[in-house]
Specification:
Structural class: alpha/beta
Strand content: 15-25%
Strand order of the largest sheet: 4-5-9-10-11-13-14-17
Order of helices and strands: EHEHEEEEEHEHEHHEEHEHEHEHEEHE
CATH class of one domain: Alpha Beta
CATH topology of one domain: Rossmann fold
Distance between the termini: 31 Å
Number of strands: 17
Helix content: 25-40%
Largest sheet: 8 strands, mixed
């Protein structure tokens, strides 16, 4: 895919007080991106779009450059100790994405220019938890790859963690523009993860994202650069012929990855689920969606955050888990399944 180029950009005035803010401004200007100013990266108004779907698509074409003001990092259980705030949202328009609910009317892309302050706070967390190893997640509310060519935030962060003996970094992406990160001195301290799904799911629901083959090819390039790899298979859908299609995904992955990379792989497996609020948002943004959102066909389950979700029934969940375990045992017997939910 070509680079993501925003249709418009907004800057907090304070962002231009940072060298990175000025660099991003100059790069966007060179790309002829219209630039405006806003008092806060959390309050951007006046975006085009008459319907919820139009407003959502235009927000996804909008980049906001600001200063991260909160000193503390949010927790990130169960996969990491803390979220590392580099940016928010992404240009992808996946119909099932939980960020459509989490970000509400602000799904525009935000990047934070005070990277030195963010990493200094990370260093204090590391020191406070020593001698334990502290794990940071860089993609809890974003996909950091699409804007990397404009910001360099991810490369700087990976290099920072490459120098930390008592910390590790992880992030996940659907995107394939990984070349700027291949030469970074990561020292094996960053786990580079890719979100995958069968081609039919990507075509139907993961709009404006690379195809499966390109994602797997990018993962192979990352593996050749020595990064530990991980894969997020999510959401898992029990659609017709799901065994055949997920089996094909694992087969293609096994055939493409270098053998050395298979010695240290992680997998995170997340079945499709939705809340009432998410269903309403999806219907407003994607009124013709083909997502399986029939509540009567699901089991209602309360989650760890105090609200309920509609998940697959126990029998089908058992079938999905058994199949995924069998596939991973067949193709990647040394891999670690971090969780199945």
């Amino acid at each position: 895919m070509e680079h993501f180029v925003p249709a418009r950009a907004f800057f907090e005035p304070a962002a231009l007080e940072y060298p990175l803010g000025r660099q991003i401004h100059d790069r966007l200007k060179a790309l002829n991106v219209p630039i405006r100013f806003t008092g806060s990266h959390n309050r951007v108004t006046g975006l085009p779009g008459k319907t919820p779907g139009e407003a959502y698509r235009e927000a996804k074409r909008t980049m906001v450059v600001g200063v991260r003001k909160s000193a503390d990092f949010a927790s990130c259980k169960p996969s990491a100790h803390f979220q590392l705030p580099l940016n928010t949202s992404c240009p992808g328009m996946c119909e099932y994405c939980y960020l459509a609910t989490t970000l509400g009317r602000r799904p525009y892309l935000r990047v934070y220019v005070n990277i030195d302050e963010v990493l200094a706070r990370a260093a204090r967390y590391i020191e406070e938890r020593a001698p334990e190893v502290t794990i940071f997640e860089g993609a809890a509310t974003s996909d950091p790859i699409p804007t990397e060519y404009l910001t360099g935030l991810l490369g700087e962060t990976i290099a920072f963690f490459g120098r930390q003996q008592l910390a590790r970094f992880r992030f996940v992406t659907k995107y394939t523009d990984v070349e700027p990160l291949l030469a970074v001195e990561h020292n094996g301290h960053t786990r580079f993860r890719f979100s995958l799904n069968p081609s039919s799911i990507i075509r139907r629901f993961e709009h404006a994202t690379p195809n499966l083959t390109d994602r797997i090819a990018a993962a192979a390039r990352v593996a050749e650069a020595g990064y530990p790899l991980g894969f997020l298979i999510a959401p898992l859908f029990a659609f017709p012929d799901w065994q055949k299609e997920y089996g094909g995904l694992f087969r293609e992955l096994a055939e493409t990855l270098p053998e050395k990379a298979k010695q240290d792989l992680t997998f995170e497996l997340i079945t499709h689920r939705f809340t009432k609020r998410a269903k309403a948002n999806i219907a407003a943004i994607f009124p013709k969606t083909g997502l399986p959102l029939e509540e009567a066909e699901r089991r209602y389950k309360y989650g760890q955050f105090g609200y309920g979700k509609y998940v697959y029934g126990k029998e089908l969940m058992g079938q999905l888990e058994a199949f995924m375990s069998d596939q991973l045992e067949q193709y990647f017997p040394q891999a670690k399944i971090e969780y199945f939910v």
